[in-house]
Amino acid sequence: MKEYLVACVGKPSAGKSSFLNAVSDAAAKVGNFPFTTIKPNHGVAYVPIDCPCKRFNKSDQCAPKHGKCINGTRMVPLKIMDVAGLVPGASTGEGLGNQFLDDLRHADLLIHVVDSSGTTDAGGKVTIGYDPINDIDWLQSEIHSWIFNNLWKKWDGIRRRHVATASSTAETLAAQFSGYGANLVCVQRSLDRCGAGLDKLEEWGEETVRKVVDAFLEERFPTIIALNKIDLPDSDKNIDRIFRKYGPTKIVLTSALAEMFLRKLHSQGFINYIEGTEFFDLADDKNGLKPLPPTTLTRLEKVQDLVLFRYGNTGVTQTLKLAMDTLQLIPVYSVRNITSFGDGGAAGSKEKTGVFRDCVLVKKGTTMGELMGDMLGDSKKFCQYIETVGGVRCGESDEITLENNIISFKLTQEAVKKD
Ligand SMILES: Nc1nc2c(ncn2[C@@H]2O[C@H](COP(=O)(O)OP(=O)(O)OP(=O)(O)O)[C@@H](O)[C@H]2O)c(=O)[nH]1
Ligand SMILES: [Mg+2]
């Protein structure tokens, strides 16, 4: 099964590692100086979604294999990484060079972490009054240059081979873009984005190649923006301008620092914090929480004033949700028994029972047949039929939607025994 990976990118000191730490189990080093991170750090984040156990009144039996489910809110794992800070000219070797762009090759989506406070310059050094609008366009053009330069320096050879082998445009580009984890379908979609009227590949000049690279970037590396450090004083006036220029659809306001702080207090038993919300409980007579030391309480009140009351949440969970939506990922629950929603465990096994144990994320448009191939591999030949809730049969070519995403692959007895 494909596991989706999102990557935090941006200039040094924007808060990429802080964001990663805030949402995942990673413990990446954080520092207020550029290039704290050299090698990428990896973690697993959990995105809250509505679990069907609530709809079917089975929340008390819900037992996810990965993540957890609390009262019908299910935390689904999503892989996340950060990379070294990128500086202008990274594509031609500036800063830590473009070897670090290579670390992005496996990412499915980029979270551009932007320091909205204007307290770090283009290279990530402490300053005042820097305009973060500069960072937004620049990153995109840097990634464009990375891909374009790699392609353009070989373009004569690519063109000659394209003509000699009588390949299609998509085939020729797919061979070039495979290093970025792109397949033929992805390349074809990128070409479709360019619209009709593209000349034959052998006639493309620099302008057309750049246009195709732009379309490829949008298709292969969709990007959302986390406007970070919203807890700092100058951020709100910058945020206003950024929203006016770019619109709200791909932007989330975040304070990675506030989220790290809240989760830490939660794990230490001082507060009960519900991730993604403005709510937390403090100690009282009944809840068993520890009373906060006065200085920590003052800090918590500051986080409340500057972030939670003002913006409604720290934004990091909302960023993950936007990542999922942008990637058009939907959850699929694979169960053995379509009535009880249990997996029953393998025959004779002592495996823990429970309902809705398996949940995977698939891209909208995935068919039942494709999912079956991914989940069962060679064993798919043992599948007699596929059914969804109510015992409704599904065809292999049916697309998975939020209406039919509880699925049972009915295997032959022979296959069940083997399992
Ligand atoms: N006030 C505030 N500071 C933050 C926030 N997020 C990160 N920082 C601070 O910004 C500085 C840089 O954070 P990092 O997470 O190391 O930044 P990075 O983008 O990973 O930096 P490099 O690894 O050098 O590229 C640290 O001092 C953090 O504490 C935030 O939301 N608010
Ligand atoms: Mg870092």
TrEMBL record:
Coiled coil: none annotated. The keyword ATP-binding does not apply. Residues 4-274 form the OBG-type G domain. GO terms for molecular function: ATP hydrolysis activity; GTP binding. It comes from the Eukaryota. InterPro entries: G_OBG, GTP-bd, P-loop_NTPase, YGR210-like_G4. Pfam families: MMR_HSR1 (PF01926), YGR210-like_G4 (PF08438). One of its GO terms (cellular component) is cytoplasm. PANTHER family: OBG GTPASE FAMILY (PTHR23305), OBG-TYPE G DOMAIN-CONTAINING PROTEIN (PTHR23305:SF1). This is p-loop containing nucleoside triphosphate hydrolase protein. It comes from Rhizoclosmatium globosum.
